[in-house]
User: Fold these one by one.
Assistant:
Number 1:
Amino acid sequence: MKQNAKILLADDDALVREAVVKILDMFGHEVLAVADGREALDAADDSFDIIILDINMPDMDGFEVMERLNQRKLGVPVLFLTGAGSMEYVVRAINLGAYDFISKPIEDLDMFNVKIRRALEKRMYVLQEKAYKDNLEREVRAKTRELEEKNQLLEEYSEKLEATAVNTIVTLQVAMEEKDQYTAGHSTRVTEYSRMIGEKMGLGREELGVLDRACRLHDIGKLVIDLSCIQKAGPLNDEEWALIKKHPEVGYNILKPLDFLEREGMIVRHHHERLDGKGYPDGIGGGEIDLLTRIIIAADSYDAMTSRRSYRVNMSMEEGIAELERCVGSQFDPEVVKAFRTVLLERRDRQQQRAEFRDF
Ligand SMILES: [Fe+2]
């Protein structure tokens, strides 16, 4: 433990000052002696181990100095120099948190030395505690940062895993669609239309993400259904329809084990439902169909109408929009159709402008 203290001494009496400095010096301590309270306040900082204050000083007495020191929370023990018989002073000093008292004149050097030593021990204890706290805070901060970094890594890792899982399934679905000239590009177009509608309707980033994944995966159920029937020329018979109608539920079951695709799975399940409840597989309607599902229902139907099929010619954009509008309320959501119509027309205008520019 530290043997020698750095001490700040304030006393207006030059003789006392000199005497105390001499004694402290003899015990090996380093002393800064000042003549009044104000100087003491100016000099005081936490580089000192002990502060010794005379009580009666002109201008600012020892009590006031201590009050102000207390506000600075230096953690430096304060000892008061007191004349004999001033009990009232002692009580006041104790209330202010004085550590000890030294009576003037100093006659018992050993006792004085003991008091200084005890004050120094107290100071060392305060410093140790502070170092421990600082250290602890630093360690806690470092550990918190480390944890945050690890969490971030984990999050990135799981996002990557999730994206890989989605991409794998999408690859399978695209491969399936590409095998048939009539379905090629269907999911990509539905995804694109849905994104355009979603953005027009002001959906947030997360909602758009769910919508994007749901669209890319929406026909995944067709993967496990024998597709030869949809590839045949001519309309489907009842049996074939019954088979095809299974694909939303089959898709839902494929995605079910993937917890992070819970919402997407429900959208896949319901992408052939209708507002009037006449859709499949669950026949839900109205408020049971959420906005994202309403968007994909419209986008999916529109792409089916405007894409070529083996058994019929496809509709034009204008015819497709008219059909969507005709079925507002029964199949489609009015707000979704409104937004869809706007983005389709905007896209057509942009394409026309580009074409004119090219021709020019
Ligand atoms: Fe479908």
Number 2:
Amino acid sequence: MSLPARVGVLIVAFLAVVALSVWVVAKLFIGDGPPTIAFGTTVAADTGATVHVIMQEDPQNDVSTHPDWVSYFVRSPTTHEWVHTTLFQVPAGSKIDMTIYGFDGCTPLRNNFWGEVTGTIGNVAYENGKPFTALNSYSGCNVAHTFSMPGIGLNVPMGSPTLAQIAKPGLCGTSPCTITPGNPHVVMTFSFNSPKTPGEYFWQCRIPCGGGFIDGFGGPMQTIGFMTGNMVVVN
Ligand SMILES: [Cu+2]
């Protein structure tokens, strides 16, 4: 083999090793990313049909490389399994009925503005079936997280189990949490209209719930699959 050919083989082999290393590192530390759970796949867009989306928020997650991070989960409409993701898909122009099981304890809001319900149908949300238009997290420890989607003006504070329940029996300790009396939780329900324009609509929790991070806004607060995600709207 000539010298240029040998150099060529060496360079190709070197690049192959580099590419393989990058792929392994990406797989290990970044992963494939959380899946997008599709709801209402049999529903035609822009008909105002009702699509039911079910989620939960937890004090931990047990299913990632950051088990101590607070997290949302999405329930698959097909397998009924809880999936560790914050990405979900809905048809455009539909009525979205949300149910969010709240297992996490309370954290005061930085700004009580995020305690107000906005952007839902009727500007109302329900905690255990009881309607409310705002939760005042300064008057009591009663807000765990929020479900906020600025693109459509949606904001709903998530209630939390009572302080007595947090003391005993204590918050759910294994996530995704199971909906049992031994795991104190609130059931948050609200409805909103999905936009008519397809696209990705960013949503986030507005409580600084990233414990151990500066101002509480790092870690789970800025990571897809935990406290921030996208609602994908399709035609
Ligand atoms: Cu949060």
Number 3:
Amino acid sequence: MEQKYRVLNVLFAGHAQAGKSSLIELIVGIFPDNLDFELVHGTTVSLKVIQFELKKSKLLLNLLDTAGHSDFKASPALGLEFADLLVLVVSGTDGFQARTFWLIEKAKEKNIPVIIAVTKMDLPAANVNKIKKDLEKLNARMISIIQTSAKKNIGIEELISKISIYTKHRKKIEEDLSFIILGYEYRKGLGNLINVGILSGEIEPKRALTPEVKTKAIYSLKKKPLNRASEGEIVQLLLNIDPKFNLGTKYYHGKFISPKIESIMAEVLPRKEFFIEINDPRKFKLSLEIFEKLKKIIPFDYYTERNVINLLVVGDLQFEFIKERLEDLIDFKIIGSKIKGIITINKVSKGTHKSASVRVVPRCRNALTVSRENNQITKLYDILAATAACEAFHLDGLHVDIYSGKNEDHIAQAIAKAVDKVKIIKIVPYQDIIIKIENYTDVFPLIEKYNIEVLFQSQTDTFFLQVKNENFENFFNSLMKISEGKAEIHLFKFEQNDVILAVDPGTRHFGFCLIEKGEMPSLWFVNMKTNIENLRSHNVLKRQLDIELTNFLRNEKDIINKIFVGNGPGSDFIIDFFIEYFNIPCDDYSCVITDLSTHEESGGLKTVVKSRFEPPDIFLVDEFKTTKEALFHLQKGELVSEVRSKGFVDHAIAALLIAKRGLKGEVIKLEKKPLKQLYDYIVENYAGSYSFSSIHNVNDLNDLKPGMYLRVKDSSRLDSNLKDGDIVSFSRFGSNYKNFLGTTLSGNKIIVKFDSIEI
Ligand SMILES: Nc1nc2c(ncn2[C@@H]2O[C@H](COP(=O)(O)OP(=O)(O)OP(=O)(O)O)[C@@H](O)[C@H]2O)c(=O)[nH]1
Ligand SMILES: [Mg+2]
């Protein structure tokens, strides 16, 4: 029956509490929220697909209801990957809010047509003209607006008829099959079915998707068995395996591709990490099973360390969701949490909303701080209601001054408005390890498997990868295995004592990167008022840079001791500026240190190699010529993302790459016998997140006894050069111990026997 029907996938998305679910209920007669958490909290968590047939026009509508709360942003992100049409639900009383802007931007990027459904028009405060004005500001006047009310049943017919005039050309029937995993449904007797949206081609039962994975059967959402399904349809697949794919996984070219690499789901970064302790091993195992089930409802990650489970979530409400599910079954203790990475803005901004008036100030390397009438208050979380806080929750690199505000909702909206006016800058999450790989090119299977971001790939065979801390060991072992030990791995350890500022100078855009001891690199971008080639405006530009950099560097200005400048069109200009700004005693550029052999020929500045100056040395380094190429990869990854300005990513990343190049001397080479080095460096640099146990199945220093055997995973070729009986020394193993000595018992299997411990 479905075959005769035209299919249209309509995404309902909008800010939290705008009235999306209510609108769908009015159309279909079914309220989409069905999870306990959703009903208790009155907010949608996961993506729902509700079908609605328009018999007259032979149209099957797949209505996709999504979450508005930013902690569950993954659900609209997932919907955007498959939607033919976006119904942007905007509350008539609140107008445009943070999520509204984000959705309009994404729909534009993905060429998805938009209809605006203004809800709550029954309320006296509803104001559709304000929404029209907001649309004008966005240059999106063409979007049609329909006024509705779920309470008074207004505008539904008009909305449906507007939706039904859209058609989507399905031209890819002959193309290869591709689909996206939108959800899971457990069915008694059958197990887990996956809900897939077919992106192209056709699918039939008993079809081999990969050598291991086959479709056993296909069902419609109404649970009817189907002989085939094609592009645009949402159906359920029963596979020959118990599916463990993450939500948002796409299948194409015969492969399942992780959402972290491919889609805008990748934007949904974990922003907080919670540590949960469970002492009973049986319950620990059970909780992992619960987490696996929950991952089928909302995307999140976790990793374990002994009896602690570390949950990576987008925000507190998402954690609440997981916690509530766990609480019913298991006793556990929350032993801590930390914010991952920092997101901040680029300049001071003010916002007002109803009774509230606030000012937000970027604080690049601090977590969120708040003051009300000049009194410091602890955390914004304490004063903001969960559903209202929208993006403000995640703008950790901020200070917020609250001048007035009767309630939390007003304050949150005012913050969101202030933030909306300025650029948002994201900074690298610090848990990740950045490595460089040489001598081996076939790293892509591992990139998928271990959810790795490709930061940079050179034309030769060098890769810069950002590897999740918790995946590092497995990744390392696998790489050694598949490359048969050929791959050369370098680990980036940022120079511990230097504070480094790097800049990628363009003629109009400057990217800055600051690297400090024990800190993640911070990025800054300056869009110059005019082109630096215009000599007469140099003084104006220098004043602009002065303000921007002072804002970015704050107290760190005085402790910077190295500057790396990319050899670009603006390098002479920025060097001049730095000499003044940092008050560097420097005649004839004698403070500039360069290793550029070609620089003199290019007619640039004369350079003298000198060892040291106080304060900072300026290093002129070869610019990455392939910034564009890096950008190509980076935009898919998450190192940095920009919200409004296109130039930001390009230059800021280049600055980071320049800084890394500048730190070339600090790159540590891991040998192929890395037991010692791998351990040392990981423990030294990432202490707390790696334990010896996860590498060697030893839980404690005390567990290591002379005569005991230490087995490193069979798959590892780390020590393939070792011969039986070779002596292995483990140095600097904890402060109380000088050395461990071991003998290898079997070179390839790397079984090491501990011989002695020097204390
Ligand atoms: N007065 C009035 N209230 C409405 C209308 N539509 C929804 N509401 C109320 O607004 C609140 C949120 O409605 P939902 O439909 O759950 O909103 P939502 O957009 O799905 O919310 P999230 O799932 O949290 O993003 C509920 O209390 C509804 O009763 C409307 O047309 N008029
Ligand atoms: Mg809802």
Number 4:
Amino acid sequence: MTPEATPLHGRPDEVPRRIVVLNPKGGSGKTTIATNLASYYAVQGLKPTLMDFDPQGSSWRWVRKRAETAPPIHGIAAYERNSRVTKSYALRIPADCQRVVVDTPAALVAQSMPALTRQATAILVPVLPSDIDIHAATRCISNLLLVAKILRSEQRIGVLANRVKRNTLVYGSLLRFLETLKIPVVATLRDSQSYIRAAETGLGIFEMKPSQVADDLAEWTPLIEWLGRRPVMGDAGNALLRAATVAQRASLP
Ligand SMILES: Nc1ncnc2c1ncn2[C@@H]1O[C@H](COP(=O)(O)OP(=O)(O)O)[C@@H](O)[C@H]1O
Ligand SMILES: [Mg+2]
């Protein structure tokens, strides 16, 4: 897997890029994408932070499961409101962190979308190829455009077709639907046991034996490259990112 081609790659003083994985439909693959993306960045030495806004805490538990010897990922249980530590301490992103991956809850209301996506360099929407999921994704994307007021021209939204069985009718419907939305499909992931095996052990597929996951790794290349091409946010600093996180949490039910 090639590392991201970006002139800022490896600079510890850069503002961390924030990638938000979002789709109010449960089971679409948000946690799978968020944890594996964090695993990729960890292997790349980018000291990622994985911020979990889902009260079910699946991403947070995955980070806790990781072996001490695994490449570090800083986990933040952003859904936790009653932590005894102060809010800003609990939400602090380490200074050496270069990527923030945000996992979001199911049933997220449209009103929470502006705060969750404001500081995002990229918003990934995983969609399963089924009629119900296609319908839910239409709503999700129109809320991102109309409520969160993300412009198509910003090219921050990318759809990820997940658990795909190619050559099926419903996969064809998904592709046609995405074409009408004019939102790019930045990756297509097959249904694979590798993700289930990885999740059990707090690993990502990037940390498994490459010979066992070669087909899955190859499917991530277009996504990693697309993410690497997203423009870095202006001159927003860490303080701004923290403020955004507090606002995001406050806006969640
Ligand atoms: N590409 C995939 N192949 C096989 N199983 C998958 C894949 N993506 C997700 N899953 C499984 O589907 C279930 C729901 O995925 P998850 O990432 O938890 O969705 P969400 O966070 O959107 O609710 C999990 O059991 C996960 O392991
Ligand atoms: Mg989840």
